[in-house]
Design goal:
heterodimer, A: alpha/beta, eleven-stranded mixed beta sheet, ten-stranded mixed beta sheet, 10 helices, B: alpha/beta, six-stranded mixed beta sheet, 8 helices, globular
Chain lengths: 419, 249
């Protein structure tokens, strides 16, 4: 499919199941009003310390894109990469880049956002891991937005279309971190990620979105798993004014394991929409979805979790849970399981809850001298601990915990609200 | 130390404390006994600052208006409530919770923070005296603890927070004889000249081990009789009804 034919695709509408909770019209109008960033970024100086502060340094090779353009001076040198790992751009004439041809069949646009991503994106990050490679340090792909300055009237946001393609060879074991972060200001990020996980390969994947609270984020992650592979993915959504995080995982080979977990921390007037699809297309696969939402102030968080079990498959295990914590009477959480079970030999469970902070627990902590703000934070952290503790990298756990703890609206306390 | 006058409390329009008067001087241990529904736990909750009650009257602690303070400020001022039903808080580590509480209260009292390693040692000393397994430190607060373990955890918190006034709300309920003895010893050990205690109990058994200076009988939201520890024995022998019938009209 070429760019010209993709660009005529229509944007989705809220009548479509997967877009029901997304303010599509608002996103589309922002996307169409936004302008591409000047290159190199004019308004902001992006230096290594800025990348360290916004994305963290997690000890592995880091490749950095600013407004969708590869930033060589901020990225690891090729010479420093572990053996068996190649990171670079799709359009480089490097032999390994040809591997992404293998992904061409799955990295296609399914809606107008992806069509725009493919047509208008500047540089594509390509990560190729040879078969049989074990890399202990996490490979970190950073997409940083640096909105142009001189836009005081605020009538035009800076847009970028980050695209990441990852090919994990058979029998490889890797850890991957994707960070979407940004400097203050209005930005629109229309991101796509495609990952192929080869046979018996194991991948730990963390996706962290901490863009500015004025940003619009449309994220689409498509993962294809081959026979006997294992994926553990944790997604963290904190930033953005409107942020959509769609993850679809396709279990194409037998004996695949998929463990998806995630958390959104939604405050102010943020809207966070998480849309997960797990497609069991082969037998003897096991999947779990564990998602948590913390919604404060006038925030709105939503979760749609789809499980598809294809006809003819056997011995499928599929589980889903979504729990939400509402911290203010104006906050809203929507949760919706969406099951399409087209086979008989299936064990499937799903559950969803929406609740408040436990007043008894809050009083107990305060009665021991712990101030209300700190007590609330303790209970919020406890609520999402299952998810955050599952992040396998100590430095990333600390980075995420610090961002959540400094999230102003979460810490800000309105005593009246508790009465 | 604690001065309560004409304390009234109601919840959802129902009066529970109805003009209660009570004075606990520094260093004294007082017991409050009374039938079910007398208002004993409400008194503990109101003193500790639980939301949801309409409260009037006076309660001062070292001259400070207790009722105007937040629960955390009451704790910092030196008040401690051992809960009748300690709350389970999954996901909050017991050690982290205890150390946060102790250090917050110490900071408010102008004392330096205790570091993690020193705190661990200190906590283990206290736990040994309460015959608690140090493994409880790495579990979530009260989560999955048995009734007796929860009560010991309350006494552990009390001994580490070193309150000036401890209110023990039915700390003896649900304990077997051995656990009761350990808990009673823990309480007795904390008895000191500048620490007062208010022990709320149904059963005089605890008062054999922790002998109170004064015993009060609470019924219908008021203190109807007060006496020395003999009153507890009298209650055990005669029950609330006949003991209270002896009150002059």
């Amino acid at each position: 499919m070429n760019a010209a034919s993709e660009s005529v695709m229509d944007f989705p509408s809220v009548r479509e199941e997967a877009w029901r909770y997304t303010p599509v019209d608002e996103i589309v109008s922002r996307l169409e009003a936004a302008t591409a960033a000047a290159m190199p970024p004019t308004g902001a100086s992006v230096s290594l310390p800025v990348v360290d502060a916004l994305a963290g340094d997690h000890a592995g090779p880091r490749i950095v894109f600013v407004n969708g353009a590869y930033a060589a001076h901020l990225s690891a040198d090729d010479d420093d990469l572990p053996a068996g790992l190649w990171c670079g751009l799709a359009d480089l004439s490097h032999g390994r880049a040809a591997a992404n041809v293998a992904l061409a069949g799955i990295d296609h646009a399914i809606d107008a956002f992806l069509a725009r991503n493919h047509a208008d994106g500047r540089d594509s990050a390509v990560v190729v891991i040879d078969p049989g490679v074990r890399i202990d340090v996490p490979i970190h792909v950073v997409h940083l937005t640096a909105p142009d300055d001189g836009d005081e009237l605020g009538d035009s946001a800076t847009i970028s279309h980050p695209r990441t393609i990852i090919d994990v060879g058979d029998d490889s074991h890797i850890a991957l971190i994707q960070t979407y972060c940004g400097l203050d200001g209005r930005a629109v990020t229309n991101a796509s990620t495609t990952i192929r996980i080869g046979r018996r390969a194991e991948v730990d994947h963390c996706r962290v979105q901490t863009e500015s609270t004025a940003a619009t984020h449309i994220g689409h992650t498509r993962i294809e798993q081959e026979e006997g592979s294992l994926l553990r993915m944790t997604s963290v959504t904190i930033g953005g004014d409107i942020a959509r995080n769609a993850i679809s995982v396709h279990l194409n080979g037998t004996d695949v394991q998929t463990e998806l977990s995630g958390v959104n921390v939604t405050t102010g007037r943020q809207r966070h929409d998480t849309v997960v699809t797990v497609d069991h297309a082969a037998s003897r696969c096991a999947s779990t979805q564990r998602f948590r939402g913390v919604v404060d102030d006038h925030g709105r968080g939503s979760f749609s979790g789809e499980i598809i079990v294809r006809p003819g498959t056997v011995a499928t295990d599929a589980h889903q849970s979504n729990r939400n914590l509402i911290l203010s009477p104006n906050a809203e959480a929507d949760t919706r399981p969406w099951l399409q079970i087209l086979a008989d030999d299936v064990r499937c469970t799903h559950g969803a809850t929406v609740g408040r902070l436990d007043d008894d627990a809050l009083f107990y902590l305060r009665s021991r001298g712990i101030p209300l703000d700190a007590a609330r934070m303790m209970l919020i952290a406890a609520f999402i601990r299952d998810i955050t503790d599952a992040i396998p990298h100590e430095s990333l756990r600390a980075h995420v915990a610090a961002i959540i703890a400094s999230s102003k609206s979460v810490v800000a306390t309105d005593i009246e609200r508790l009465k | 130390m604690l001065h309560i006058a004409n304390l009234r409390a109601s919840i959802a329009g129902k009066t529970i404390l109805n003009g209660l008067d009570l004075d606990i001087p520094s260093g004294e241990v007082h017991a409050i006994m009374g039938p079910n529904g007398a208002g004993k736990s409400t008194l503990a909750s109101v003193l500790a600052g639980r939301d949801g009650y309409d409260v009037s009257g006076t309660a001062t602690f070292d001259g400070v208006d207790l009722l105007a303070l937040t629960p955390e400020d009451r704790a910092a001022a030196g008040l401690f409530l051992a809960f009748q039903h300690p709350v389970e808080i999954p996901g909050v580590g017991n050690m982290y919770f205890l150390r946060s509480a102790v250090n917050v209260v110490r900071a408010k009292r102008g004392l330096p923070e205790i570091g993690a390693m020193d705190f661990l040692g200190l906590a283990k000393e206290h736990m040994a005296r309460l015959e608690m397994d140090p493994a409880f430190l790495s579990r979530s607060v009260n989560s999955g603890f048995s009734g007796g373990e929860k009560k010991r955890n309350e006494i552990l918190q009390m001994s580490m927070l070193e309150p000036r006034l401890a209110i023990l709300d039915e700390t003896d309920s649900g304990l077997d004889i051995d656990a009761l003895r350990v808990v009673a010893r823990g309480i007795e050990r904390l008895r000191s000249r500048d620490r007062s205690m208010l022990i709320i109990t149904h059963h005089p058994r605890l008062l054999d081990d922790v002998r109170p200076d004064r015993v009060h009988v609470l019924s219908g939201g008021r203190i109807l009789r007060s006496g020395d520890h003999q009153l507890a024995a009298e209650l055990e022998a005669g029950g609330y009804a006949s003991t209270l019938a002896a009150v002059p009209a």
